[in-house]
Structure formats: structure tokens, C-alpha cells
Structure prediction request, 110 residues.
Amino acid sequence: LGAKEGEEGLRLATEGQPDIIVLDVMMPQKDGWEVLQTLHNSEATRHIPVIVCSVLDDARLALSLGAVDHLAKPVTRSRLLQALARCRQGTETPRVEHRLQIAATSLTLN
Prediction:
């Protein structure tokens, strides 16, 4: 699943119940920090782990708002897979089947 702005991402997260969300911070209208707070405060989505992936290197803020991990861009394939593995170890889900990416642009892996 993929969303290019926050409201669409929130709707998809609520309806689709993905196993994990990769969230960018820099988005039009509702930024990633607002989306993260909404996801974390909603009973329908607070159980979904969120990895913040952004050019803003503010891991402390991401974690304090409820993210399970933070990746500073540019993100390598290896770093993303490691973050997904850490999430998988922290949950009872044996594998990540459905992932939602909420970002203004596509995530490019180096």
C-alpha cells in the first residue's frame, strides 16, 4: 500500500491494518509528526509499528512520539531490512506481509 499524503495514509492504515508503516516526515498538508501522533493515539492503529524514514535526523522525537525506529535518508536496502527485522522480533507476527508507506515521494533505496 502507498499514500502520498497524511490523511490518505491514515485512512489506509485504519482500513488496511498493515503489519508495519514506513512514514516520511516531509509531506504536504499533514506532516509525518502529526500522522505519527494520530496513529499512536488511535485505538484502531496504535498497535501498528511505525518506522520513521526522513531527511530530518531526529530519532529522539520520532521515538518519543511512538515510532519503533527511525532511519535517516538516504536509506540503504540493508538498513531498511534490519529495521524491519527488529520490528518483526518485537511483535508476534512471524513476517511482514502488508506494509504501508506514507510519503510524499517514493522511497529510494541505495
Summary: The two ends are 21 Å apart (CA to CA). Helices lie at 6-16, 32-41, 59-64, 77-90. Residues 77-90 form the longest helix (14 residues).
